[in-house]
Design brief:
CATH architecture of the largest domain: 3-Layer(aba) Sandwich
Helix content: 25-40%
CATH topology of the largest domain: Rossmann fold
Radius of gyration: 18 Å
Distance between the termini: 25 Å
Order of helices and strands: EHEHEEEHEHEHEEEEHEHHEE
Length: 223
């Protein structure tokens, strides 16, 4: 899943970005309203983390634009403006959640997981293929109910493939969802991560096959 973090303070952006990235999400960062609008026009996001005090205005001004361009995407406001009137204004403006700074990383991640649940508060069920199961909300991976630890890039890669189980996923889609706005990422880098993921799943006895489709992309299915 891809998250847009809108935060202008470099240290805060680093701390929040690291926490969310380590939880298995791909994070793009924007430091202004203009940068955020450009990002929203370029990529599809599963979640937006929004600061209010931005150099070019109040982050709440972005809410209607986010709703227009990406209807249904959850937005969590992260801000030092945490007095009751500020919270009320943020929620009335359309935010799904409002968290005052400072906050604990564990609470933030719990709020992220809650925001990513399906409408009605019901968590999306695990996606199962062979002996492999992937929880799209918590990003937990198990093989025959035993947890499997994956590096974050391989976890993001697996999540993208599991959400499109049995379908060919274009290389461009994988590069976009696994690496986000990171610097130059070559196709060889993607192939290397696919190879390592395939080996880990085989060692774990996942009972799946990760097929290359020459010149197009990859597909995950039962072996």
């Amino acid at each position: 899943m891809r998250v847009l973090l809108i935060e202008d303070e470099p240290e805060m952006a680093r701390l929040v970005g690291t926490s969310v990235t380590c939880a298995g999400y791909v994070v793009d960062t924007a430091g202004t309203i203009d940068e955020a609008e450009a990002a929203i026009g370029l990529a599809r996001y599963s979640l937006v983390l929004l600061d209010r005090r931005l150099p070019d205005g109040d982050g709440l001004a972005l809410l209607p634009r986010i709703r227009t361009r990406q209807p249904g995407v959850p937005v969590i406001v992260l801000t030092a403006l945490d007095a009751v009137p500020d919270r009320v204004r943020g929620l009335d403006a359309g935010a799904d959640d409002y968290i005052g700074k400072p906050y604990e990383a564990d609470e933030l991640l719990a709020r992220v997981r809650a925001a990513l649940r399906r409408p009605g508060g019901e968590a999306a069920p695990p996606i199962v293929c062979g002996a492999l199961a992937f929880d799209p909300t918590t990003h937990e991976v198990t093989v025959q109910d035993a947890p499997v630890a994956l590096p974050r890039r391989e976890l993001a890669l697996l999540g993208t493939l599991m959400r499109r189980l049995g379908r060919v996923v274009l290389r461009e889609t994988l590069l976009d969802e696994v690496y986000g706005f990171d610097g130059e990422v070559s196709s060889n880098t993607l192939d290397a991560h696919v190879s390592r993921l395939r080996a880990r799943l085989a060692r774990a006895g996942a009972g799946v096959a990760l097929h290359p489709v020459r010149g197009v992309g990859y597909m995950l299915d039962r072996s």
